[in-house]
Amino acid sequence: MADPKNYSSLTREELLKAIVENPNEATIFIDTQGIIRLINYEYADFLGYKPEELINRPILEVVPQTRLLEVLKTGKPHFGDIWTIRGHQLAVTRLPILKDGQIIGVLGRSMFKDELSLAMEFAKKIKQLEKELASYRAELDQQRRAKYVVGDIIGHSDKMLRLKQKVHKVAQTSSTVLITGESGTGKELFAHAIHNASPRKNRAFVRVNCTSIPTELLESELFGYEEGAFTGARRGGKLGKFELAQGGTIFLDEIGDMNKSMQAKLLRVLQEKEIERIGGTGPVLVDVRVIAATNRNLEEMIMAQQFREDLYYRLNVVMLHIPPLRERKTDIPELAAHLIEKLNRRLRAAVNGLAKEALNLFLQYDWPGNVRELENFLEQAINLSEQDILYPHDFPVLEKRLQKQLAGNPGGRAVRPLQEVVREAETRAILNALAATNHNKKEAARLLGVHRSVLYRKMVKMD
Ligand SMILES: Nc1ncnc2c1ncn2[C@@H]1O[C@H](COP(=O)(O)OP(=O)(O)OP(=O)(O)O)[C@@H](O)[C@H]1O
């Protein structure tokens, strides 16, 4: 080696060698076959070898738990990875090395002197922060997007068509919307669709499930907090969902489950259009459209003094009531076909549809769990069935529930007025014809041997 005082005369090779042999670092290079092509004295010594004993040996033989091969595979570097080997913690950087755009190997460099714990602590912290950041980003991305549009709402019953028209209309305003309906009727789907049909569609859509967040946390979730607002408050504070939804829409799901003190705070936000962060020094103006949903009867809750009447009127500027599935059975064939397609994709199945008898079963059942229940039954059946058409025996639980339903309904089996029986048979025939023709009303009327106008009239009555 050259005289250190004369270091400026070092050749490039001598410099590179000095860098590689730097005793503070373990350095290794593997080629695309995973063969060790270069290893410095420090690292070889640490592994209990001399460098020349390791050159040209597969890395896996020497360090079976190596992560260098991952970098070889993905081409993605690792920075500051904390790695434990032989009881020592190392802060490792692994870099793919390219030549003419092609990966020719991976360089691994580790600081392994234990006294470098400061550097390792630092690397550990960065890693932790990176992890947190990635999970918050993913959460935000997930929460801030509205997934569905009006076209995703399946159903051509009069009730559904009217609701879809209403969605387009209310989407043009910023008015607060209250969506009511039994569980599983599609309230969330409608909330997404309103946002996506509105001028706010390119801004955030933030969903808050008021039930799943404990009461004491809901306030900080909705309004955020300033640094040091309370013990355990995160450094730098936290933005609340209202601020995250700035310019967009906030969807307050299960609003009926919000406690009364939060109801009062929410009322203030709706009145003043501003929020106050916990520990904050002043109000923050928010431009957010509010859509709330509930499957509870808020009017009854008001009478029982569980829901504030003034908040109810603030929320209920536009009301969207999604009828239960049993009140729009004409949607069932189309919904079933849509859900089978959706489930086929998710479960990698290839079910073609429902046998007529299965559809008949569906049309008789009352669907207390609405579209979600329909989806669940189809999912179970698709999972268990070995044929490409689903038959009644693929829905054993549904068959049982239907029997119970009929037994519980005295009119179900006993002698009933002729008019009622005829009407029911007529409804079933119409639904079958619609299912058979993929909802083509003209074609369905032809199959039924009636004029189109007669079919339309009967369908309106059915709804
Ligand atoms: N008209 C529809 N078209 C297509 N899919 C629907 C329709 N209605 C509901 N679904 C599907 O049914 C499931 C339940 O819908 P959603 O979660 O919107 O119901 P919800 O009324 O918000 O229920 P909950 O009150 O229990 O929260 C979802 O998978 C949704 O995509």
Automatic annotation (TrEMBL):
It comes from the Bacteria. Residues 153-383 form the Sigma-54 factor interaction domain. Keywords: ATP-binding, Coiled coil, DNA-binding, Nucleotide-binding, Transcription, Transcription regulation. SMART domains: AAA, PAS. GO terms for biological process: regulation of DNA-templated transcription. InterPro entries: AAA+_ATPase (IPR003593), AAA_lid_NorR (IPR058031), Homeodomain-like_sf (IPR009057), HTH_Fis (IPR002197), P-loop_NTPase (IPR027417), PAS (IPR000014), PAS-like_dom_sf (IPR035965), PAS_fold (IPR013767). Pfam families: AAA_lid_14 (PF25601), HTH_8 (PF02954), PAS (PF00989), Sigma54_activat (PF00158). Residues 12-63 form the PAS domain. Residues 119-146 form a coiled coil. PANTHER family: C4-DICARBOXYLATE TRANSPORT TRANSCRIPTIONAL REGULATORY PROTEIN DCTD, TRANSCRIPTIONAL REGULATORY PROTEIN. This is PAS domain S-box-containing protein. It comes from Desulfoscipio geothermicus DSM 3669.
